[in-house]
Amino acid sequence: LDGDTRGGAALSIRAMCGKPVKYVGVGEKLTDIEPFHPDRMASRILGMGDVLTLIEKAQNAITEEDAARMAKKMKENSFNLEDYLEQLNSMKKMGSMRDMLEMIPGMGSKLKGANLDVDEKQLEKTKAIILSMTPKERRNPGILNASRRRRIAAGSGVQVQDVNRLLNQFEQTKQMMKKLSSGKMKFPF
Beta strand pairing status for 23-25 and 33-35? Predict the structure, then answer.
């Protein structure tokens, strides 16, 4: 279901036919089918989000062991590009950024017209760049000099600027995680 109207239509059809709605399609892929929960659907239609479904998606995408390991790496400031790749894969399992944010109460109405969808091609490009690195380079991005960056760019089919952009993005993510784990960063809400 990609809109309030369709959600309301599904509930109306259920009322008319007397047959229960058991599953709903929430995307275009075969994996985008979820069990139907009327209370959660009503909450989405009213713009109150769906935190329970968001939590379920997170639990399915990330195991407790992975979360604990990642938290430890964040505290020790040993987060590397292998971990970054793992995080990208986990996010992809959960769905689009827009879908996740719409499940947070009050965020649905604020997202109208905002372009939050992360380009799938950009994600694939990022993964290709990381996978073109040697394991040593992924664990220690500080060793990536100009010649290594050229080799990685050629191996992943991108420009050197794309490799530099990814490394800058990674450093920003690493700094943000460091601030979060130390308690220095405050959330705006």
Answer: antiparallel
